[in-house]
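Lecture notes, part 5. Sequence design as translation. It can be helpful to think of inverse folding as translation between two languages: the language of shapes and the language of residues. The source text, in C-alpha cells, appears below.
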C-alpha cells in the first residue's frame, strides 16, 4: 500500500533533477510524467483481467515490483529522451500491476476472519489506503532527502534496492495467501454504472 502513494510522487519529484541532468525542456519533462499516467489507461484494465483470469495470478504482485525495481535503476542511468520515455512506460506498467494486485489483496489481508459471510471489505480497503496516503505524504520528503544526502542518481539506485525487500517477501509467500478471483456468470455482474462512476471520481480526486 505504501508504494501506491509513493511511486507517483517519486515520478513527479524526480523531474527537476532529470531536467537538470539531461538538459531537457520543461515541456519534455512534463511529457515524461504524463506518459507514466497515460500508461495506466490500458495497463490497469489489462492487470485486472490478468488478476481474474491468469492461472498464476499470484505472480502479478511480484511482477509489478520487478518493473519498478528495474525502472528506478534505469532512470538513474538514462541518458536519452527515448530511454526516458521507455522508462515512463515501464514504470507505468509496473505500477498498474502492483496497485491492482495490492488493492485486491487488501480485501483479504486485513480482518480476514472477522465473519465468513460478512467480510470487512470496505474497512480493509480504508485501512490499506492509509498506507497509500502515508506513501504520498512521505514521497516528497524522500525526494528531498535523496537530493540532499546522495544525489538523485545514487538515490534512485538505493530506492530500487529498497523495493527488493517486498519483492523477496512476496516471492516467499505461499500461493494460498493470495485471494481467489470472484466468478460471475456475466463478466459485468457485480458492477454498475454508478459504482464505476464513483470509483473513477475517487481516483481522479486522489491523483488530481
Amino acid at each position: 500500500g505504501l508504494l501506491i502513494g509513493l511511486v507517483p510522487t517519486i515520478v513527479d519529484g524526480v523531474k527537476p533533477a532529470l531536467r537538470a541532468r539531461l538538459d531537457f525542456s520543461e515541456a519534455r519533462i512534463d511529457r515524461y510524467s504524463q506518459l507514466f499516467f497515460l500508461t495506466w489507461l490500458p495497463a490497469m484494465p489489462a492487470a485486472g483481467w490478468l488478476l481474474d483470469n491468469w492461472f498464476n495470478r499470484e505472480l502479478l504482485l511480484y511482477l509489478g515490483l520487478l518493473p519498478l525495481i528495474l525502472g528506478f535503476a534505469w532512470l538513474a542511468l538514462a541518458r536519452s529522451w527515448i530511454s526516458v520515455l521507455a522508462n515512463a512506460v515501464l514504470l507505468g506498467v509496473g505500477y498498474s500491476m502492483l496497485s491492482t494486485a495490492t488493492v485486491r489483496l487488501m480485501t483479504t489481508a486485513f480482518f480476514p476472519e472477522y465473519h465468513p459471510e460478512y467480510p470487512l471489505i470496505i474497512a480493509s480497503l480504508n485501512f490499506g489506503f492509509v498506507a497509500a496516503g502515508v506513501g504520498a505524504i512521505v514521497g516528497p520528503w524522500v525526494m528531498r532527502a535523496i537530493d540532499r544526502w546522495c544525489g538523485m542518481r545514487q538515490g534512485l539506485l538505493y530506492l530500487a534496492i529498497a523495493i527488493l525487500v517486498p519483492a523477496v517477501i512476496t516471492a516467499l509467500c505461499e500461493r494460498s495467501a493470495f485471494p481467489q478471483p470472484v466468478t460471475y456468470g456475466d463478466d459485468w455482474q457485480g458492477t454498475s454504472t454508478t459504482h464505476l462512476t464513483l470509483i473513477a471520481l475517487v481516483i481522479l480526486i486522489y491523483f488530481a
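The translated text above is only one of many valid answers, since several sequences can fold into similar shapes. The chain has a mean pLDDT of 77.
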